[in-house]
Design brief:
The structure is a single chain. It is built from 23 helices and 30 strands. It is of the alpha+beta class and 799 residues long. A hairpin with a 6-residue loop joins strand 23 and strand 24. Helix 13 packs parallel to helix 15, helix 14 runs antiparallel to helix 15 and helix 16 packs parallel to helix 19.
Length: 799
């Protein structure tokens, strides 16, 4: 945790008297509850086997959630369920009894008196002998959901214990045979139902909802003074170095991130819906923040820790126990083809699962990133991306004392020891001095900082806006990606135009990738180009295409789909939208052209055809977005390419036939497609006019070139180009055989290569296969089909 103010603050908050716990259980008489189930009737309590059998007959196999999926797997959850719409709760004292239980639950869980809990039925569950539910965590099904209430109906059974865990502690709850047992716990607590040993365990699960909320307050003033002192000290003294090499002085931290104990979702993270000890601690922190003139927001954090760890039994800790591939043909192999114990060659020896019993030794590294936070005024929240430094983090409960949401273990790899990676999702209170508010929010990529800049512009305070905007330069380059990039770019674009300062505008817009741009940004883009000129616009567009690592290929493909609409909007916008549209088309075409040339140089036919086919859709969108002179230039370049370019042009033409831009609508793209269709027809006709391969012609065109000047490849090329030779036996050492294997496989040549292990060196046997003839026939058949389609869909007529 480090030393100094952060450690003192964590200790002060840790010493605050705990209000409640993460789980509680209350027993009440069964007389006050009447429960009816459709087609079964009123359930007599305690439950007996005949009635339970009727319930099972009306039930279905229970499912569970994993991410966004709903699954049914009896190896994970084996129980029966009846939906709440088929259940009626009542009884002369039920409402009074439930209100009393909920009041007790609120107090036991440490929720403030200002909160009123309501219980909403979720499902009636029946566990028979051997049935269970593995450790899991409930999803928060409503914005106001804070926990789960399990109402265990009295029945004669053994086993089926409910075990609830949080922060390294576990509580075991066993249902009563005579009483109704109410068990409540926070929704982020992991819990499980152990297998039932005999009889039936029947429970009604209910969602705990928090309503009628008023702000919570801390009534202990003494810690507030100490906490305020810690905050002041933290923000005024040099930041603590994790590794104090050289003892250099660091600037004071910009923020303090205090990690909370419980997990929360975006919709459930609210000052008034916190859980357990978080309630008291955050209330004290907010009061201390007010005393120290600091702002405080709630945030969600992703935490990753890498530990030096020791497994109870590490089956990957071995030397020399591998075996060769089943199909390894080289007995001279030096062990490069060793299989790991899972039987996968070269596989990374990494596993995911439950590593709770592993021994943690030293913390090697950790990373904390804030990805969402609330606004200081409490009006909603926003996506952010803010790595947090070691000197800014504080917690009363350390990560290792919590249950990670995911773990991966990697055994000994030769150059470093056993490591265990653990990921956590934690909530936090983030504080910063009020006078540093703008920088603290802007460093996270917050729209709030841009709104503040826009506010100064709207108020006519241009100098203040420029000064604050320039202060973003040291860190603003780290933003521009993520789900919120589009909205952030829109705000940055408006500010960039209003600043009337070209260099600062460039700095604000440079971090974004071109994939961020869409039609809503067209007016701002046109206005920026008109204000700062074409040289500025050219540099801006170039930077957007050059932003690396922020987006995937899928993002670029999706953006190209929208390019025609974006360019149409730009040309219709006030300002200089035409030139900006042309720059975007030019950048998109340069990227696609580079990929096209790269695939044309690929020897492997199957890979090349797949890559060229994927370029068809981007080519169509670029032609649809381009101005007339640009479409003519692109079409002319495409016509100069070799015949293999048809592997891209024909898919593009097929896509074009399904678009609004058709053969004869007079649009520039339509004329370009017509020109390319005529070019493809000419090339296909010429290809089909060439003589068919003779039945005794075994010649192949060597693919690719040797990059090593090995002295072997000329002999290989002579064999490949020979019309008569289709088998070659070649005594070669291991390295030579591997080199030729690689070249043949890389080019996907119809030549087999095997090693005859006789004598020294072994003999490499190369054999041309009948695929030479079947491939050529398939190519001819495909050309005939394509030509017939072209002539039917793209007739050479004047339009």
């Amino acid at each position: 945790m480090g030393h100094g103010a952060r450690k003192q603050l964590a200790e002060l908050l840790g010493g605050v008297q705990r209000r409640g716990d993460f789980s509680t259980s209350i027993e009440m008489s069964a007389r006050g509850l009447r429960i009816e189930v459709d087609r079964v009737g009123e359930l007599p309590l305690p439950l007996r086997a005949p009635v339970t059998g009727k319930l099972i007959a009306q039930a279905r196999q229970a499912s569970f959630g994993r991410g966004e999926q709903t699954l049914s797997d009896t190896s994970v959850r084996d129980t029966w369920e009846i939906t709440p719409d088929r259940i009626t709760l009542g009884g002369p004292d039920w409402d009074y009894t439930l209100d009393g239980v909920l009041d007790g639950v609120r107090t036991a869980l440490g929720l403030p008196p200002a909160i009123v809990l309501r219980a909403e039925p979720h499902a009636l569950l029946i566990y028979g002998k051997g049935q269970f539910f593995l450790p899991h965590q409930d999803s928060e099904k409503d914005d106001s959901m804070v926990g789960t209430l399990v109402v265990s109906l009295p029945s004669y059974h053994t086993g089926g214990e409910l075990i609830v865990s949080h922060a390294g502690r576990s509580v075991v709850h066993q249902a009563s045979r005579e009483m109704v047992t109410f068990t409540a716990f926070y929704a982020d607590c992991r819990h499980e139902v152990k297998p039932v040993k005999s009889g039936y365990r029947v429970t009604l699960t209910m969602n705990l909802l928090a309503e009628h909320i008023r702000p919570a307050c801390a009534d202990d003033e003494e810690p507030v003074v100490g906490l305020a002192h810690c905050l002041t000290k933290h923000f005024t003294e040099p930041a603590e170095e994790r590794y104090a090499y050289g003892r250099r002085k660091a600037a004071p931290p910009n923020r303090l991130v205090y990690l909370l104990d419980h997990e929360y979702t975006q919709r459930g993270l609210d000052w008034d819906r916190l859980k357990g000890a978080d309630v008291t601690r955050t209330a004290l922190l907010r009061q201390a923040a007010s005393e120290a003139d600091c702002e405080a927001v709630l945030a969600l954090a992703e935490v990753k820790e890498t530990w030096d760890a020791h497994a109870p039994y590490d089956r990957y800790d071995y030397y020399g126990e591998g075996e060769h591939y089943d199909d390894c043909e080289d007995e001279e192999c030096e062990g490069e083809c060793l299989l790991d114990p899972d039987g996968e060659p070269g596989a990374e020896r990494r596993r995911s699962g439950d590593f709770s019993n592993y021994e943690l030794n030293d913390l090697i590294d950790d990373e904390i990133t804030l990805n969402w936070w609330s606004r200081p005024d409490g009006t909603g929240g926003e996506q952010i991306n803010l790595p947090v430094a070691y000197a800014e983090v504080c917690a009363t409960t350390e990560n290792k004392d919590l249950t990670p949401c995911h773990s991966e273990y990697e055994g000994y790899m030769g150059n470093y020891g056993n490591t265990l990676d653990r990921w956590y999702r934690r909530a936090a209170v983030v504080l910063w001095p009020r006078q540093r508010s703008f920088t603290a929010r802007a460093e996270a990529g917050s729209e709030g900082a841009l709104r503040e800049l826009q506010g100064h512009l709207d108020a006519g305070d241009l100098d203040r806006a420029r000064t604050l905007a320039r202060s973003l330069a040291p860190f603003w380059k780290h933003h521009g990606s993520g789900e919120a990039a589009g909205a952030l770019f829109a705000a940055a674009l408006t500010v960039a135009v209003g600043l009337r300062e070209a260099d600062t505008a460039t700095m604000l817009l440079a971090p974004f990738g071109v994939e961020t741009l869409d039609e809503r940004h067209a007016p701002g883009l046109a206005a920026a180009a008109a204000r700062y000129g074409q040289t500025w616009a050219c540099g801006a567009v170039s930077s957007w295409f050059g932003t690396a690592g922020a987006y995937t290929g899928a993002d670029r493909a999706a953006w190209l789909e929208s390019l025609p609409g974006l360019c149409t909007a730009l040309r219709a916008a006030d300002g200089d939208g035409d030139a900006t549209a042309s720059l975007l088309v030019e950048g998109a075409w340069q990227a696609v052209e580079q990929q096209l040339i790269s695939w044309l140089g690929t020897d492997h036919e199957t890979e090349r055809r797949a890559g060229m086919d994927r370029l068809g859709a981007p080519l169509v969108r670029i032609l649809q977005a381009a101005a007339p002179e640009t479409t003519d230039t692109i079409a002319a370049m495409l016509r100069r390419l070799p015949d293999t370019a048809l592997e891209c042009l024909l898919p593009a033409l097929r896509i074009a036939t399904r678009q609004p831009t058709t053969v004869c609508d007079g649009a520039p793209a339509a004329r370009a497609f017509q020109t390319l269709a005529a070019h493809c027809e000419l090339r296909l006709t010429a290809a089909l006019s060439r003589p068919v391969r003779a039945v005794d012609d075994w010649s192949l065109t060597p693919a690719g070139t040797c990059q090593t000047d090995c002295g072997l490849c000329p002999d290989l090329d002579a064999f490949l180009t020979s019309r008569t030779r289709h088998v070659m036996e070649w005594p070669l050492a291991k390295d030579g055989r591997r080199h030729l294997h690689s070249r043949i496989d890389r080019a996907d040549l119809p030549v087999t290569h095997t090693t005859r292990r006789q004598g020294r060196p072994y003999v490499l046997v190369l054999t041309k296969t009948d695929t030479i003839f079947t491939r050529e026939q398939a190519t001819r058949t495909r050309a005939e089909t394509d030509l017939a389609w072209l002539r039917g869909r793209w007739p050479q007529s004047s339009c």
